[in-house]
Write a structure and sequence with these properties.
With about 60 residues, the protein is mainly beta. It has one helix spanning about 55-60; strands at about 1-5, 5-10, 15-30, 35-40, 45-55. It is about 5% helix and about 55% strand.
């Protein structure tokens, strides 16, 4: 595993090394109560947005069925 300014390498649960290009980083803010990162999967070039936040911040952003 490795983390640099512009990429991150992770070992997935199957033990396979995966590399992601870091496109944008949204640091935690006490105002928004969440943080996020946009990455591009090196192998497929697929864009992925990961977001993590407090329950009160995230519940208003999802649609419950």
């Amino acid at each position: 595993m490795d983390r640099q300014e512009d990429y991150i390498e992770l070992i997935n649960p199957l033990g396979i090394l995966e590399k992601f290009e870091i496109l944008e980083n949204f640091p935690f803010s006490s105002e928004s109560k969440r943080m996020g990162i946009i990455v591009r999967y090196w192998e497929t070039r697929k864009l992925i947005l990961y977001v993590k936040g407090a329950d009160v911040a995230m519940l208003g952003k999802i649609k419950l069925s």
